[in-house]
Write a structure and sequence with these properties.
The structure holds two protein chains of two kinds. By secondary structure, chain A is of the alpha+beta class. Chain A contains 14 helices and 22 strands. Chain A folds into three domains: 122 residues, Dipeptide-binding Protein, domain 1, CATH 3.90.76.10; 107 residues, D-Maltodextrin-Binding Protein, domain 2, CATH 3.40.190.10; 218 residues, Dipeptide-binding Protein, Domain 3 (Dipeptide-binding Protein, domain 3), CATH 3.10.105. In chain A, strands 8-9-10-1-11-22-12 form a seven-stranded mixed β-sheet. Chain A has a six-stranded mixed β-sheet with strand order 14-21-13-20-18-19. In chain A, strand 6 and strand 7 form a beta hairpin. In chain A, helix 7 runs antiparallel to helix 9. Chain B is globular and about 85 Å long. The chains are: A alpha+beta, B mainly alpha. Chains A and B meet through strand 8, strand 9, strand 10, helix 5 and helix 11 of A and helix 2, helix 3, strand 1, strand 2 and helix 7 of B. Chain B: Keywords: Cell membrane, Membrane, Transmembrane, Transmembrane helix, Transport.
C-alpha cells in the first residue's frame, strides 16, 4: 500500500494546533498589490514546501516544475505532449526501446545549449545508488539510457513497461552545472538552473519561492512576468491573506473556500484528483484478512455520507484507486451502502454476534485496530466514520493515532488509514498497492494483498502496449477487488483553489495525492493571459 | 572608573574558561548525538518525506547508507567531530546544503533579532526599573510590577500569537511574519525594519520582566544604603543621586543577569522565529531536531553552548570590573 503520507493534509490540519505558527509575511502595507502593477505578477499561497529543487533528488518528477522541462509534458486532459522532445517517442515493437528526438535550439536559462548529454546525465544520476532520490524505483524499468548524436536519446528497458513515457515528464537538469557538484548537497539543489518557463530568483525557505519569466523560453515568454509562491502552512492565515489582497490565489480546505463564494472578484476551482483515502485490511490479520469480513466492510461503509460530512461534498466515493470518473474505471464495480447485505455476508460466513454485539467466529473476536497519522484530522475523521460504520455490522474497530515510526512496524497485522494517488497511469497506484511480491516492501502493498488473478492482470497491464488490452487487464483487477477487497477504499478528495478573476478562466489537471508545486490552477501559469496584457492580441509563440 | 583595567587577571580568567569549555562542548555534542539517536524520529523518513512513503525498501536502505545514519552512534559522533575539527561541519540533510552555508545564511538574521530584543529588554527594563524604584508602591511601580510578574509566567510563543492576532489580524498595522512581504523579491531596509518590529518587541518584552525586577530591587536597596543617604544629606540633586549613585550600584545585579539570560534568549528566539517565520538559525534548529539532522543539530548546539559560555564570561568580567571586591578567579 502506498501510504504516500499526507504531509499536505497534515500540514493543513496539524498546523491548526500550532495556530498561526507558520504565518508567512502578511502584506498590510501595500494592499494595492492585487491590482496596479500586479497585472503581470501573481502571488499564490501554498501549504507545502519542496525539500529540494533538484530534479535529481526528485523535485518535479511528475511534471510542471516551472523551472525545468521534461522530455514530455501532460496537458490539461492529462495527455502526453512533447516538451524537450520534438515529438512523442518512438517505441519499438517489443516495447523495450524508447527513442526520443530532441527539440532543437533549446537553451538553459544561463544561455548554454540543452542537448542529449543533459538527458543522459539526468537519468543516469537518478539511477545512481549514491543519489538520495527516494523515487528511484519509478525508473526501475530502465536498463540504460544513451545519447545517439546531439539530438537523440534512446532508453532501453529491462522489461516492457507501457507507462514508461509517462515517467519521462521528469525534469532535465543541466550537466554543465549539476554535474560539477555534489548531487545531494550542492548549490544546485537550492539554486537550480533549467530550461523551463520560469527562472528562480529567490528561495526564502519556509517563506516563499520567487520566480521571474524566462524571456528566452522555447515555448514563448510567459505573460505573468513575476510569479511568487508563498509558503503558508496555516489554512486560516492563508485565507486571511487571500482576502486582504496579499495573495492572488491559494489552496484552501472546503470550509474556508466556502467563505469566498460570494466574492465576485474571485473564483473557486475544484480539481478532480486521484487522491484517495483507504483502509488497509492486512492479509495477516485473522479478522481483516478474512474475505467475508472484507466484503462485509466494503458494503457496510457509507461512503457518500463521508463525502458529505467530512469533505463538505468536495469529493467522490472511492471503490478502488481509480476514481469513478476516470476512463480506466470499470463501470459496475460501484458498491452500494447496504448494511443488511453486510450482516448477511457475515452471518453466512459464520461470524455470529456475541453478547456485546461484536461478532465471533471460532473463538476469534471480530476486532482490530485502525491506525491513522497523528494530527491528520482528515484521516482521523475517516477512521472514526469507518469504525462507526463497522460497529453497526458487528465489527469492533478501534481507531488509534501514531506517527509513521509507530505505525510502520505494525502494518503487517494492523489496519492503517492510508492515502495516495498518481493520476498519470493506472499502473502507478495499482501495481504498488496490489502486487503480492511487493508485500511489506517499504510502504508498498501495505495490506500484504495476495491474489494470483490480480498479480497476473497488473503484470499484463504494465507490459502490454495496447490500450484495449490494458483496459481489459485493469477491469479484471477492479472486478477481483469486489470479490476480495484487500482494502476498503473510502473517498477521492477534490482539491479546492480560490483565484482572482483577473487571470481569466483557468483550468486544473487531474491531481495526485501530493500537493507539489505542480498542482492547482497555476499548473500552467506560463500560459495565463491576465487581463490588460492580452489587449494587443499578439501572443508570442 | 579611572583606574587602569586589570588586563592580566581578566585574560587569565578568559583562558581558564576557554580550557573548561572544551570538555563541556565535547560532552554536549556527544549528548546531542545520543539524544538524536534515541529519538523516535527516523532521519530517513524525515529526509525522504512524502516520496519515502512510496519508495521501495531497497531505495530507503540505500539512502540510509548514503546519509551515514546506519552507523553506530559513537562512530557517527567521532566522524563528525574529526571533520568538524578540520573545519568541515558536514552537510545538513534537511536543508540539502553544507552546514556552514546554512549557518552563514541565517546567523545574521538571528543576531539582528536577538540583539534588538536584548536591547529593548535592557533599556526598557532599566528605565522602568529606575522609575519604579523612585516611588516604590506608586502607581507606576504597582502597574509595571504586576505586569512583569504576569509576563514572566507567559510563554514567548503565546505572546507572539497574541501580538500577531492583535497587530496583524485585528489592527492590520504590522506584518504577521517573514522577513519581507510575499511579493517583494529583494531584502530592503524598510521591509526588514517593519517585519522586525513585532518579533523583536515580543522577544524583548518576554525578557523584560527580569531586567525590570532586578533593577527595581537593586535601585530600591541602593536608595536605602548609607552612601545614597549621605549624598542626599549633602544636598545633591535627586537626579544625581538616582542616576549617579543608586543606579550604579543597582546595575551590578543586572550585569550578572545579562549572562544568565542568554540561554533564555536563545530558547525564546527559537519559539519567536518559528511563530513569525523569521528565517534565522533558531528556526533551522527546530527543523534539524524534528528531522534528526545530526550535523546541523550538533553545529547549532555547539553555537548555542558557546553563546551561553560567552555570556557568562562576559557578565563575570563586567561584574569584576564594576565591583573591585570581586576577584577574577572564575
Amino acid at each position: 500500500m502506498t501510504a504516500r503520507s499526507i504531509r499536505g493534509a497534515v500540514a493543513a490540519t496539524l498546523v491548526t494546533a500550532l495556530s498561526l505558527t507558520a504565518a508567512a509575511c502578511s502584506n498590510p502595507d501595500s494592499p494595492t498589490n492585487g491590482s496596479g502593477t500586479g497585472t503581470t505578477s501573481a502571488v499564490v499561497g501554498i501549504a507545502y514546501e519542496p525539500d529540494s529543487l533538484s530534479p535529481l533528488l526528485g523535485y518535479g518528477k511528475d511534471g510542471n516544475s516551472k523551472i525545468f522541462d521534461g522530455l514530455l509534458a501532460l496537458d490539461a486532459d492529462m495527455k502526453l505532449r512533447p516538451a524537450l522532445a520534438a515529438e512523442l517517442p518512438e517505441v519499438s515493437a517489443d516495447g523495450l526501446t524508447y527513442t526520443y528526438k530532441l527539440r532543437p535550439g533549446v537553451k538553459f536559462s544561463d544561455g548554454k545549449a540543452f542537448g542529449a548529454k543533459d538527458v543522459v546525465f539526468t537519468y543516469r544520476t537518478i539511477l545512481d545508488a549514491k543519489t538520495n532520490n527516494p523515487s528511484r524505483t519509478e525508473l526501475d524499468a530502465v536498463k540504460d539510457v544513451t545519447a545517439q548524436g546531439e539530438d537523440t536519446v534512446v532508453f532501453t528497458l529491462k522489461y516492457p513497461y507501457a507507462p514508461f513515457a509517462q515517467r519521462t515528464v521528469l525534469p532535465i537538469a543541466p550537466e554543465h552545472i549539476a554535474g560539477r557538484q555534489d548531487v545531494n548537497t550542492g548549490a544546485f539543489t537550492t539554486r537550480p538552473v533549467g530550461t523551463g518557463p520560469y527562472v528562480l530568483t529567490k528561495w526564502s525557505k519556509g517563506e516563499k519561492l520567487s520566480f521571474t519569466a524566462n524571456p528566452h523560453y522555447w515555448g514563448g515568454e510567459p505573460e505573468v512576468k513575476k510569479f511568487t509562491m508563498a509558503i503558508i502552512k496555516d489554512d486560516d492565515v492563508r485565507a486571511t491573506r487571500l482576502r486582504s489582497g496579499d495573495l492572488d490565489g491559494a489552496i484552501l480546505p472546503p470550509n474556508l473556500a466556502k467563505g469566498f463564494e460570494d466574492d465576485k472578484a474571485k473564483k473557486t476551482y475544484a480539481a478532480a484528483t486521484y487522491d484517495y483515502r483507504t483502509v488497509t485490511l492486512p492479509t495477516h490479520n485473522k479478522v481483516a484478512g478474512d474475505t467475508a469480513v472484507r466484503r462485509a466492510l466494503d458494503v457496510a461503509v457509507d461512503r457518500q455520507t463521508m463525502v458529505d460530512a467530512i469533505l463538505n461534498g468536495s469529493g467522490k466515493p472511492a471503490y478502488g484507486p481509480v476514481p469513478t470518473d476516470s476512463e480506466w474505471f470499470t463501470k459496475g464495480t460501484e458498491r452500494t451502502h447496504d448494511l443488511a447485505a453486510a450482516k448477511k455476508i457475515l452471518d453466512e460466513a459464520g461470524w455470529i454476534p456475541g453478547k456485546d454485539g461484536v461478532r465471533v467466529k471460532d473463538g476469534v473476536r471480530a476486532a482490530f485496530p485502525l491506525w491513522y497519522l497523528t494530527g491528520d484530522k482528515l484521516r482521523q475523521e475517516h477512521a472514526l466514520a469507518y469504525a462507526s460504520d463497522a460497529k453497526k455490522a458487528g465489527i469492533a474497530i478501534t481507531a488509534e493515532a501514531g506517527t509513521w515510526e509507530v505505525i510502520e512496524p505494525r502494518m503487517k497485522h494492523d489496519a492503517v488509514l492510508a492515502g495516495g494517488g498518481s493520476p498519470a497511469d493506472p499502473d502507478f497506484d495499482q501495481y504498488t498497492l496490489l502486487k503480492s511480491s511487493l508485500a511489506g516492501d517499504g510502504f508498498n502493498n501495505m495490506a500484504w494483498y495476495d491474489n494470483k488473478a490480480v498479480d497476473a492482470a497488473i503484470e499484463a497491464g504494465r507490459r502490454s502496449g495496447d490500450k484495449a488490452e490494458r483496459k481489459k487487464a485493469y477491469d479484471t483487477v477492479q472486478r477481483e477487488l469486489v470479490k476480495n477487497p484487500g482494502y476498503t477504499f473510502l473517498t477521492h478528495i477534490d482539491h479546492l483553489y480560490v483565484v482572482d478573476n483577473r487571470f481569466g478562466a483557468l483550468t486544473t489537471q487531474v491531481e495526485p495525492h501530493d500537493h507539489g508545486l505542480a498542482s492547482g490552477p497555476w499548473w500552467n501559469v506560463e500560459q495565463w493571459k491576465p487581463e490588460g496584457t492580452a489587449d494587443t492580441g499578439d501572443t508570442k509563440k | 572608573m579611572s583606574h587602569r583595567l586589570p588586563w592580566g587577571p581578566m585574560a587569565r580568567m578568559t583562558g581558564r574558561r576557554a580550557l573548561f569549555a572544551v570538555p563541556v562542548l565535547l560532552t554536549v555534542t556527544f549528548g546531542v548525538f545520543a539524544v538524536a539517536a534515541a529519538s523516535p524520529f527516523d532521519p530517513v523518513k524525515a529526509y525522504t518525506g512524502t516520496a519515502g512513503l512510496t519508495a521501495s525498501q531497497e531505495n530507503l536502505d540505500q539512502i540510509r547508507a548514503n546519509l551515514g545514519v546506519d552507523q553506530p552512534l559513537v562512530t557517527r559522533w567521532w566522524n563528525w567531530l574529526t571533520s568538524a575539527l578540520q573545519g568541515d561541519l558536514g552537510d545538513s540533510s534537511v536543508m540539502r546544503q553544507p552546514v556552514a552555508d546554512v549557518i552563514a545564511e541565517r546567523m545574521g538574521w538571528s543576531v539582528l533579532l536577538a540583539a534588538s530584543a536584548f536591547l529593548i529588554a535592557i533599556l526598557l527594563g532599566t528605565g522602568l526599573g529606575v522609575l519604579a524604584a523612585r516611588r516604590p508602591g506608586g502607581w507606576l511601580d504597582r502597574g509595571v510590577s504586576s505586569a512583569a510578574y504576569t509576563l514572566e509566567a507567559a510563554p514567548a510563543f503565546w505572546l507572539g500569537l497574541l501580538a500577531i492576532w492583535l497587530f496583524a489580524l485585528k489592527l492590520d498595522v504590522l506584518p504577521a511574519g517573514g522577513l519581507t512581504d510575499a511579493a517583494s523579491e529583494t531584502v530592503t531596509f524598510g521591509q526588514v525594519a517593519s517585519h522586525l518590529v513585532l518579533p523583536a518587541a515580543v522577544l524583548g518584552i518576554s525578557q523584560l520582566p527580569w531586567f525590570f525586577l532586578y533593577v527595581r530591587q537593586g535601585v530600591t536597596d541602593a536608595l536605602a544604603e548609607d552612601p545614597v543617604r549621605g549624598a542626599r544629606a549633602r544636598g545633591l540633586s535627586e537626579r544625581t543621586v538616582l542616576l549617579g549613585h543608586a543606579l550604579r550600584s543597582g546595575m551590578l545585579q543586572m550585569l550578572t543577569l545579562i549572562g544568565s539570560r542568554v540561554p533564555e534568549l536563545i530558547t525564546g528566539a527559537l519559539l519567536i522565529e518559528t511563530v513569525f517565520s523569521w528565517p534565522g538559525i533558531a528556526a533551522a534548529t527546530v527543523e534539524a531536531a524534528t528531522s534528526v539532522d545530526f550535523s546541523l543539530l550538533a553545529a547549532l548546539t555547539v553555537l548555542a553552548t558557546a553563546a551561553v559560555l560567552l555570556g557568562n564570561l562576559l557578565s563575570d568580567l563586567l561584574y569584576g570590573l564594576a565591583d573591585p571586591r570581586v576577584a577574577f578567579d572564575g
